[in-house]
Amino acid sequence: MLGFGLSIEPQLWALLFTMVRVGAAFVAAPVFGAVAVPLPVRITLSGAIGILVLNSQSYAVPTEVFALTTFVSIAAEILVGLTIGFILQIAFAAPLVASELIGTSMGIGFAQAVDPLNGTSSPALGQFLSILLTLLFLSVDGHLILVDLIVRSYQALPPGAAWIAPERLRNIAFFGGYAFLAGLLLALPVGFLLLCLNLVVGMLSRSAPAMNLFAVGLPASLAVGVVALMIALPAMGDYMLVIVHETIEMTSTLVLGG
């Protein structure tokens, strides 16, 4: 029942209610939440996964649409979906942090471009690392794991009892610092080498004050940074896989409780 004497097909209402959590997760999650993904595609995927959830899980759907309890249940569904997507999105913030550290040391921090995934301006190096992380995320079936997490969330947090405990919300907020830790470790090989180069250039400038620091230091930083990126890229790719796996594991632990 809609309330006010109106009615709706029960199966259609159950599907729409199920799509709330799925759609909220897709809005905040990486890949699916990208600006390049059209809205009809998200709605279609949400409906398809909603049908999967209805056929695999059994839970009670609010009987009336225009009721206070229904609005509260919808708010809880949105909270769970956004939480799942937000934790996964933390992994995709690490390349941006790493690119800021590396780009500033290389002297290309001013190189900004529109990020096709988020629709915002970000460092060019950050776009390259973000695309690499996206490809690695898809290569380990991260999109399928996301769908599995959403489906399992209906069993761990069924509608009507989907409010996340304050302790979990606090742990999720603290987990946001993982983006800075992962970004620092991701930039560590190249950043440490560039730091050593800057120390050498600084000592040369003190020993030879007549030397043009900008004419020597900036080209050297750019050249060393490019070479260091080429050498460290395999190791950075391996650590990106570690970031993806740890974030997926933490999503299951923080939201689903294990």
TrEMBL record:
UniProt membrane topology term: Multi-pass membrane protein
- Pfam families attached here? Bac_export_1
Instruction: Keyword check for Transmembrane, yes or no.
Output: yes
Q: Where in the cell is it found?
A: Cell membrane; Bacterial flagellum basal body
Entry keyword set: Bacterial flagellum, Cell membrane, Cell projection, Cilium, Flagellum, Membrane, Transmembrane, Transmembrane helix
Give TM regions.
Answer: 12-29, 35-54, 66-92, 128-151, 172-201, 213-233
Q: Does the keyword Transmembrane helix apply?
A: yes
Q: Which InterPro entries match?
A: FliR (IPR006303), T3SS_IM_R (IPR002010)
Organism domain of life: Bacteria
Q: Give the chief site where it resides.
A: membrane
The text of the family note is:
Belongs to the FliR/MopE/SpaR family.
What is known about what this protein does? Answer: Role in flagellar biosynthesis.
> What name has this protein been given in UniProt?
Flagellar biosynthetic protein FliR
User: What organism does the record attribute this protein to?
Assistant: Sphingomonas floccifaciens
Top-level taxonomy: Bacteria, Pseudomonadati, Pseudomonadota, Alphaproteobacteria, Sphingomonadales
